Amino acid sequence: MIPTRSTQAWQAADAAHFLHPFTDFKALGAKGARIIERADNIWLWDSEGQQILDAMSGLWCVNVGYGQTALIDAATEQLRQLPFYNAFFQTATPPAIALAEALAAIAPPGFQHVFFAGSGSEGNDTVVRMVRRYWDLQGQPQRQHIISRWNGYHGSTMAGASLGGMSYMHAQGGLPIPGISHIQQPYWWDHGRAQGLSREDFGLVAARWLEDEIQRLGPENVAAFIGEPVQGAGGVIVPPASYWPEIQRIADRHGILVVADEVICGFGRTGNWWGSQTQGFRPDLMTFAKGVTSGYIPLGGVMVGERVATALIEQGGEFEHGYTYSGHPVACAVGLANLKLIQELKLVEHVREDVGPYLAEQFARLKDHPLVGDAETCGLMGALLLVKDRVRGTAFAPEQGVGMVCRGHCFGNGLIMRAVGDRMIIAPPLVITRAQIEELVHRIRRALDLTLADLHGRGWL
Ligand code: PMP
Q: Is the ipTM of this complex over 0.90?
């Protein structure tokens, strides 16, 4: 156990030594980080003893909730038995084999193979190398180009950040890498509402932006299209139901591979095992991470469908790619225990039939709040759009940072909700109950009321 220290002592050591991800180091150093010390179920406790409802499942990952002994025991036993061995030199470990087999069993038809990585970013780097290798093996080496979307998130490595459509990330480090371009996201509020399109009509328009980009590049040069079934880090952007089926039709027409980044949507988040099932498309590859171990230990990878697997295996030769921790035995043992627990607790059905629809109902009620312009959910992902004028749908000025103001009121009131611009988003653990959803929505409403009063006080309304 790590000896306890005061909050101030942790903050001082943190500022002195720990460079946090996606953080303005100087600003955080001046303020001091919040120190999270323990957790149980959907609750966190910080070093000041405040109990916080974790409506973000850590970082979209703690699907089974905190404190699950089955996962803890699996890790402990595997650490004793065999803490590490690699899978490079014609060796394998039982947990890696058993998890690959278990993943194939829960995957859509045609997915029989898994390539393991340590994270979602590494999974997407694998995707880039794998699809380009696939087309080389098909005798079409010019098919190198991958299309993704603005405001998509695919990780923070060079390829992951390049696939992602966050321009502020591209601005640091000379990204994107060559052979990647982006089309506009299927966000009706920003790109379809003002044009007077219904959501469903807009879904078709947005999907056809893929056709335009394919024509611009020449179909013979396009390797793959990648997207999150529901964009997570971009602000929980739920595409119109018409979007993904049309994307599938376009990709099929040109023989282009479809990659679903299931890092957030996988493992029950949207009410099916995979978000692509909820959104009605059949990817060739699926990136996964986060929920595969419920975040208890790092693990990611790629589910490889028949089309690509057959080429790699039958025509193959060596695939020159892999990580020290590809198939890490402890991570895979935790993954296995996690999948078993999701099945035992029937969490996928729980989301699809019970708490998912209940959250949708509760979120719809929040639309009566003066700050809420739109509320949408998909399974246990949800977003509230904060607007200045609900009737006209007028946005706040971005520099006012109204989402961050609201986030401050959430934190102050024992609720972790994330702000993406003025979209307030949640993705609570899948074990959440109806009563806990009521508590969550109660806390959200309180934070919205405090934000409203705060904005009036600032003269912003
Ligand atoms: N893809 C998606 C859809 C994600 O949400 C994330 C992480 N939020 C990643 C990839 C990257 O995963 P990691 O942070 O594990 O590298």
A: yes
